Amino acid sequence: MIVLRHCQSEFNRLFTATRKDPGIPDPPLSDMGQEQARKLVAEIGGEEIRHIIVSPYKRAIQTAMPIAKALDIVPVVSPLIRERAAFSCDVGSPRAVLAQEWPALDFSGLDEAWWSPVIETPESVEERAELFRSEIAVSHDWERTLVVSHWAFLLAFTRTSLENGSWLRIDPTRPPERP
């Protein structure tokens, strides 16, 4: 499977420059992030992807959609692979807002407010990562699956810190080694 950290968001752009939370709930991709997403079509497009699983945050969906369009795949939205709730960007958009913006995607598995209302512990993100691992490992076609998620979730899932727009091929049937 391929795991991909979403491309640069407006939050990432501002936070990197100031090291302060800019107070942007569910930020979209920055101009640079949109360019990164377009480039990923060529980079990942030849990887025989048949399934895309995406976090419900706008930045993850915006990262996944150019790839999905190029491969004629409708992504599956999963709140299980959302970011760890810790900053303003981790407040999501309501299900109805997402459904209006992306009518071709199925958001019916989400609560209206699907994100965590409190700061999550690293242990709770580890638990979500292990639950996702157990679910995806029994999938019949995980080898051809792209997962578009976030830094903290992917760190818990892979033990690798990925930059915006970076991806990694992994075997979810083998837990990553602890550092």
From TrEMBL:
SUPFAM superfamilies in the record, alphabetically? Phosphoglycerate mutase-like
Classification via SMART domains: PGAM
Pfam families for this protein: His_Phos_1
* Protein name per the record: Histidine phosphatase family protein
InterPro entries, A to Z: His_Pase_superF_clade-1, His_PPase_superfam, PGM_Phosphatase
Q: Which organism is it from?
A: Acetobacter conturbans
List, alphabetically, the CDD domains matched.
HP_PGM_like
